[in-house]
């Protein structure tokens, strides 16, 4: 059973850092609030700069047609700039960088 009183947790590998990803934020935005920089550019689901692999969890998208092929979706690739975590999620983002606290 998932605990519905808290936001889903996103863990970023290989850093091992986790942050809460509330329903109101995309994973990319939530990472930003957690001082974590993920690769990104367009932030609207077209450029695929942010493409990364989700090894665990489920997301939904803020746009109807995120720039992912069916095969990529099947293999677990997501676009964090337009993805909202529906469950706890683990992503592989080797280029993620932890920023100093603001
Ligand atoms: S930043 Fe362009 S697709 Fe995510």
From TrEMBL:
Its cofactor is [2Fe-2S] cluster. The keyword Endoplasmic reticulum does not apply. It comes from the Bacteria. InterPro entries: 2Fe-2S_ferredoxin-like_sf, 2Fe-2S_ferredoxin-type, Beta-grasp_dom_sf. CDD domains: fer2. Residues 8-97 form the 2Fe-2S ferredoxin-type domain. Pfam families: Fer2. Keywords: 2Fe-2S, Electron transport, Iron, Iron-sulfur, Metal-binding, Transport. GO terms for molecular function: 2 iron, 2 sulfur cluster binding; metal ion binding. Belongs to the 2Fe2S plant-type ferredoxin family. This is Ferredoxin. It comes from Paraburkholderia terricola.
